[in-house]
From TrEMBL:
Belongs to the NDK family. This is Thioredoxin domain-containing protein 6 isoform X1. InterPro entries: NDK-like_dom, NDK-like_dom_sf, Nucleoside_diP_kinase, Thioredoxin-like_sf, Thioredoxin_CS, Thioredoxin_domain, TXND_domain-containing. GO terms for biological process: CTP biosynthetic process; GTP biosynthetic process; UTP biosynthetic process. It comes from Heterocephalus glaber (Naked mole rat). Residues 158-301 form the Nucleoside diphosphate kinase-like domain. CDD domains: NDPk_TX, TRX_NDPK.
């Protein structure tokens, strides 16, 4: 009975809009576990929260629970298959962690708690974020307007590539960890969207593959949510497509663990086709994949010219360009 009381006291159950506003106005950092009614709160992290509460005290660190279906403000978090932890300070969202990833949660709590202490003690500016899950769908492609430029254009100067965090990595709660590594490697994330792929999309996307592996890929990619990212890179002269493929590592996780143990596929993949992440084969393929999965996306001037040139050369559309000649060695197109 004692431990139950301790657990209840540890995380305040937010059941109304009034309590939500009251909790978020608490001084310091508030970590909200947003859960679904059908699966309940995330139990594996309770011991971590208890430990941190004991270590840092009651004044500046608070934990709460909120069922997505009970609060209108959490409407767009409903139906998510993985735990979501929202970090609030001064009533503003400052961080989000998805998945029961204890090391990442602990790091985020420490970082945000330290940042909030500086805000309170030194008057520093609080870094507020907007979670893409709470953004309107059209905001995925928005950017600051410049002299009336179309706001759907992500950038007129940057080249981009597609990155997909696959269902196997998502279901194991590795999404945020992978995103942190992507950002630490010098990539900028222009767009981040969680989506469950349709069979039609994936049959078109993977039609360069034949036989049994094709069906496995389609089934796997439609089995649960994926995270789709549009990446660019400004700090390095290396092409963004090449840089992303280098970070991913060899397609087969077993090969990746032998040859590039620090790569994403070595760390998060298990076996084919569960290799955690997808990247485009080259810049032309990146443009085609972006055109397929993000039809509203507008390429940079440089990419548009390259894309139009390639299409004119072969007189094909972005969709048709997914076809691979029958006599091509299938091993040469292992880029899923």
């Amino acid at each position: 009975m004692g431990s139950k009381k301790k657990e209840l006291a540890l995380q305040v159950n937010i059941s109304s809009q009034e309590l939500w506003e009251e909790m978020l106005s608490s001084k310091g950092l508030t970590v909200v576990d947003v859960y679904q009614g059908w699966c309940g709160p995330c139990k594996p992290v309770v011991s971590l929260f208890q430990k941190m509460k004991i270590e840092f005290g009651l004044d500046l660190l608070h934990f709460a629970l909120a069922e997505a279906d009970c609060l209108d403000v959490l409407e767009k978090y409903r139906g998510k298959c993985e735990p979501t932890f929202l970090f609030y300070a001064g009533g503003e969202l400052v961080a989000v962690v998805r998945g029961a990833n204890a090391p990442l949660l602990q790091k985020t709590i420490l970082d945000q708690l330290e940042a909030e202490k500086k805000v309170l003690a030194e008057g520093r500016e609080r870094k507020v974020i907007k979670d893409e899950a709470l953004s309107d769908e059209e905001e995925c492609f928005s950017h600051e307007k410049d002299d009336g430029e179309d706001e759907d254009v992500v950038s007129s100067e940057k080249t981009c590539t597609l990155a997909i965090i696959k269902p196997d990595a998502v279901v194991h709660g590795k999404t945020d960890e992978i995103i942190v590594k992507i950002q630490e490697a010098g990539f900028d994330i222009l767009t981040h969207e969680e989506r469950i792929m349709t069979e039609a999309e994936m049959r078109l996307f993977y039609q360069h593959r034949a036989g049994e592996i094709f069906e496995k890929l389609v089934y796997h990619m439609c089995s649960g949510p994926s995270h789709l990212l549009i990446l660019t890179r400004t700090e390095d002269t290396k092409d963004v497509v090449t840089a992303w493929r280098d970070l991913m590592g060899p397609c087969d996780p077993n090969v990746a663990r032998r040859e590039q143990p620090e790569s994403l596929r070595a760390q998060y993949g298990t076996e084919m086709p569960f290799n955690a992440v997808h990247g485009s084969r080259d810049r032309e393929d990146a443009n085609r994949e972006l055109a397929l999965l993000f039809p509203s996306f507008k390429f940079s001037d440089e990419d548009t010219k390259a894309f139009q040139g390639a299409a004119a050369e072969g007189a094909v559309s972005p969709t048709e360009a997914y076809c691979v000649p029958e006599d091509m060695n299938q091993d040469a197109v292992l880029f899923f």
